[in-house]
Amino acid sequence: MQFLEESLIELITQTSSNLPPDVRHAMGIAVAAETPGTQASQALSVIASNIDMASSEEGPICQDTGMPTFDVHTPVGVNQIAIKKAIRAAVAEATRRGKLRPNSVDSLTGKNSGDNLGVETPVIHFEQWEKDDIEVKLILKGGGCENKNIQYSLPAELDHLGKAGRDLEGVRKCLLHAVWQAQGQGCAPGAIGVCIGSDRAHGYVLAKNQLFRTLDDVNSDPVLAKLEAQVMEEANTIGVGPMGFGGKTSLIGCKVMAANRLPASFFVSVAYDCWAYRRLGVRLDASSGAITKWLYRDPSRTVEKMAQGEGFPLTGREVILRAPLTEEQVRALKVGDVVLIQGDMFTGRDAVHAHLMKTPPPVDLQGAVLYHCGPVMLKQGDTWMVKAAGPTTSSREEPYQADIIKNYGVRAVIGKGGMGKKTLAALKDYGAVYLNGIGGAAQYYARSIDKVLGVHLLEFGIPEAMWHFQAHDFVAIVTMDAHGNSLHADVEKETGAHLAELQNA
Ligand code: SF4
Q1: Among 94, 188, 194, CA closest to 140
Q2: Confidence of residue 301 (pLDDT cuts 50, 70, 90)
């Protein structure tokens, strides 16, 4: 199969950079639904631009290209070992080309393999079928939304929704709860793949498999079709909204299957995917490995531009921030302000935060802007290039952030999804702000970075290193200020109240 590896590289490249038409369509409806000028509308405007930029440049839509998961069907007699080798080679090559971020980390040593290969990475599922060609489907689902997957064991008591029993009504409550608990941390609006039944381990596999259905697909089981439609309607009244800013669209897809279960168990497994819902597939000629057909695409339909305007619509009321920031500058900011960051910023995520708890930073962080980001970087000669650089989920840094603000004088933290009470208190006590970037807008933000000024702690791997960037007009919204206000806490409270209204609907 002389074309197999190239076909798979093309599949990975297209999946990473070109959102499928059904997802574009759903996001187009979401863009039209939000009220212009709101934070939800601003977020969607950036997302729409980012989708266009990614496909025109063939760059990753989001810097987190996730755990590559392949679903392969082969005719009887095809050598699956050869296909597995070709998939691994294609994944390594796509990583080298900057289409995938090096995302495979040894769970014991913390070492990044650098090529997305490792124990059980990538994930490959094989199935035989009675057709003549090979089908390969791929889903790239990042860590932020993966961390918002949730599994319920019924009966259960759910926040705001009360008791969920072992029936469809109980399942409905679980699905509404799943959307609510994700808030902005999974880069809403999202989609859920659901398995009712099975066991704990297989239930999650089957739930993720549901994400291979198109968003406009209607369930062949009328009972499940009704449940999907009801959850779609109700979840979009809760008000989580894009990025958890509050708004009209929280869910763009709900796909449910039911599997048999043990008499003693009743699991509802939910795979939550973000708006950057990257899945594509190909049919391959079984003798040459050449692509004969793309799945999820309609060749007669041209890919339309998503963006109506130019990214984030600026009003002239934005606040310019240039590091090092003073306490006075930061205390003047309040929730809802839009800022444009100019000049120096440093990235830092899980490994950097854990490191800084024990060791002083390799740079002076007094007045600094700290960006929760694990970028996709490529080295050309001696120069590092930013290929994708959106914000990562900040809540993972909650155990560390307050100490880092206090000990090193950080004045602004950029991330997505917000942070908790300890960080909010530290913002107030020491004079700092939390700025929410638009999650997944990796191409958009890569264009706000003029230069890579340096890199520290590269031994943690590319996504976890501390990158020193020079930014211009890097746009973010103040969602936690130095006066004890948090948009995230407010939205969680309001949406919880809306969830309660649905309890007995
Ligand atoms: S869009 Fe958000 S949740 Fe999705 S992969 Fe990117 S950072 Fe993660």
Answers
A1: 94
A2: confident
